[in-house]
Amino acid sequence: MPVKTKGTVNIGGYDISITNPEKLLWPEAGITKLVYLEKLAMLAPYLLKHCQDRYLTTIRYPNGIHGKSFYQKNCPEPVPSYVRIAEQGGIHYVHLDSLPTLIWLGNLACLEFHASFDRIEQPERPTEWILDIDPSLDEEPRIMKAAWLAGELLRSLGLQSVPKTSGATGVQIMVPVEPDLTFDELRLFGQFIGEYLARAHPDLFTVERLKKNRGTLIYLDYLQHYQGKTLSAPYTPRARQAASVSTPLYWDEVREGVHPADFNLHTIGERLSRHGDLLERVPAQNIRALLDFITRKG
């Protein structure tokens, strides 16, 4: 039987208990809880930036990625004094806005961080539009080709975008937008993009929601981008054997066919030190005129 150990670290003036630091969370990658917490501290400036104004859902793996897991929306109890709460619809979400809060969640074996599309402030006006490219196959060698084709369509419409690995099998394309459109308006834009790609490449794409009806086609999920829904946050780790991390990419990397598992807890630090957050390089864009044109044509 493993020996239970416990220690305390002081972060930002707060004492945080660390339990079982030698427990393997990602056995294949050799990542213990202590190593994980060190990696979270390194990721904090990036992960917090993309979660701090969102309602947070975590996935907890108390015994590592091969053990039982569960989603957690309500803040775990007891709630430390440094943890802020964001209430919505009777759920008391963790407001992930500080390093002590992140390390506390990490110690609870929260291995994945999923942020809501609606923001705590101005929830009805999104600041991004996202297309979730979701393969039907567990191993999909065409996923980067699919992302590239979607990006090419957006470029033809004059839009700048950033592709991002989900950290699992999919890719998301993110378009920062000025907060002047509603989720319903952006859904019309997503419907146009999804249906256009599915018509142009019927052997690759589908907008069919039911997985059993997709066959081997790659699903263009424009419906996921909506209030009350979540997505793997940029720079969240994922409970995969490679300890992969949801990572923004260069379009050249997509064209070259990089593999999502290449971006993981062992490699993400060097990448961030060299390239920073690629999501910061694309400005918010106003797409109202484009949406008006699309809806008139439709």
UniProtKB/TrEMBL annotation:
Domain of life: Bacteria
Taxonomy of the source species: Bacteria, Bacillati, Bacillota, Bacilli, Bacillales
Domain DNA ligase D polymerase, residue spans: 36-278
Coiled-coil spans in chain: none
Name assigned to this protein: DNA polymerase domain-containing protein
InterPro entries tied to this protein: LigD_pol_dom (IPR014145), NHEJ_LigD (IPR052171)
One Pfam family, short name: LigD_Prim-Pol
